[in-house]
């Protein structure tokens, strides 16, 4: 879960999220809301993402501001759950 959070939040290509689905939602102003363990246990889900799925949440009143922040300064809006996992990864990673 920590590695997944880091991949989605911290791994970048030219400053933007490396994952194309994350990049799409973040460009449109979403918040990286929740990472779900074993949410997709189909063979494709296991093969593509070890069964993990991410929820992106849209707060309509914040979408334009979130989108502008992401496109302008590559700032990703994320929930406490995601940020906690990112922090745990950073503290424990040997990468």
TrEMBL record:
Residues 1-58 form the Malonyl-CoA decarboxylase C-terminal domain. One of its GO terms (cellular component) is peroxisomal matrix. GO terms for molecular function: malonyl-CoA decarboxylase activity. InterPro entries: Malonyl_CoA_deC, Malonyl_CoA_deC_C, Malonyl_CoA_deC_C_sf. GO terms for biological process: acetyl-CoA biosynthetic process; fatty acid biosynthetic process; malonyl-CoA catabolic process. It comes from the Eukaryota. This is DCMC protein. It comes from Eubucco bourcierii (red-headed barbet). The gene is Mlycd.
